[in-house]
Amino acid sequence: MINFVLTPDWVEAILGTIEGLSFICSSLIILRFIIVALSIANFFFCYWVGLGTAENVSILLLAILHFSLNIYMISLFYYSRSIRCVPIGWRDTYKNYFFLFLPFEFKNMLKFGDIIKHKNKKSLKLVSKNSEFENLAFVVDGEASITIENDVEVAKLKKGDWISEFSFITGDKTSANVISNNIFAISWSKATLENLKIKKPELFEKINSLIARNLCEKLIRSNKK
Asked: Where are the transmembrane segments (predicted)?
């Protein structure tokens, strides 16, 4: 019969082995949870053996560092995926129209964009007919009119609609004017979108998916007229 006595050396060896094996984990967030658990185990270890040696003091300090850093990163991970990270004034827009994005992705999209606010009797021209694609815009509130020759209105754009989406998709010149007396929108420049396509292709694809959904809604609206 083998008599096994759990000594501090054994505990230290076991914890070190678990820590080494934890790096096999492919999920970063799970790895952080494992490191937090190991840090707590090291707290108890130091309480058990005391801080009589420099080695044990070093173990405690590293445990505190690992615990603090990984708790912070775990909190940041979940906060960035919570709607709380989205500015309050944008939360309804996110929930109703940008739901394909993770909250932190939508927050980044807001940073990349430019805000358009206009409320005046004099119309603001958002898009000129037969011009090269320059900006893709989203109507957050208000409305805009699509006009052709002699300012004849052919369609209305309302809250939740995209502006210049056809030119964005096809690369062709714009086919009509877009004007508004009362609009709150956010727009992204051509350069920003091209940069997004290269560096964040997953966000670029999500924009395309949202536009496709909105185009279907516009088609349904036009068929009801």
From this structure: 20-45, 57-79
